[in-house]
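Whether sequence alone determines local backbone shape is best considered at the level of individual chains. When preparing material for the folding task, we compiled for one chain both its residues and its backbone structure tokens. The sequence in question and its structure tokens are set out directly beneath this paragraph.
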Amino acid sequence: MSTAQLQPPAARQGPGPIAQPLVEALDVAVSRLVARTLPGDRRAAGVGLGTELAQLRPYELGDDVRHIDPAASARTRQPHIRLHVPERALTTWIVLDVSPSMAFGTARRLKADVAEGAAFVFGRLGVRRAGSVGLVVFGAAAPLVLPPRGSRPGIVALRRVLAQGVAPDGRHDAGALADSLRRVGRLARQPGLVVTISDFRDQLGWERPFGSLRVRHSLLAVEVLDPREAELPSVGHLAVVDPETGARIEVNTSSRRIRRRFAELEQDRRATVAGELRRLRVPQVTLSTEHDWLRELGRQLR
């Protein structure tokens, strides 16, 4: 997907300020999530920097004296070196929805603004401790893939794509999320963290790819919502356009029956998404355009 296929929404506000203390707190929460849900043992072979003890051995000329273990040296009356198992650097994959429905928002900001902020935060967390971050963008004509990069190059590449906005109206592919998850499954060779940021609207067939990724990776689903999607206001006749398909629909919002049916359908849709993620044992975070999304992210990840 060329970034020329994306465009910043007219009402774009941006994600707003991102407080560093909150990001630091999220670092701890995400580390716990990965440790709790990542299948298998992800420690690297050999010895080096880390926290888990690998071995104690007598001191040899040339060893770093900072690694001398006082307790073992006192016990044996001979200097001993403490060696640790190094932690393997984690790769974070961000699967980001830029479909036209993400340009919707009736509160503080657009759903695309919230998604941009969440993606940037997870990107910053992903490059810590020698980690790297990769990006798969879906929702336009063709997916865009940024291979994992570490440190500043990874953040610069991520920021550049996030600044491009969302796809224009009428560019809808119901299988885009499923295809992107399968793509990550092919590209992510080592166990890592996969964060999917989407409104999960009108996406089909994503359950099986999620299940396949769950076998090897730690997953997190971030659902972005707007309060107006849950209920219709009573404002008379409305002519609305579906951003995903471009279809024009006229509706009488004064009808209580129509408003109730609209709310029921949306409630069922959200319950279905939450139920499938729960069945797959994928942690879910729900962010709204009307709240402080960063605080909500931290609160729900605790």
User: Anything to note?
Assistant: The chain has two domains: 3-40+89-220+286-301, 52-85.
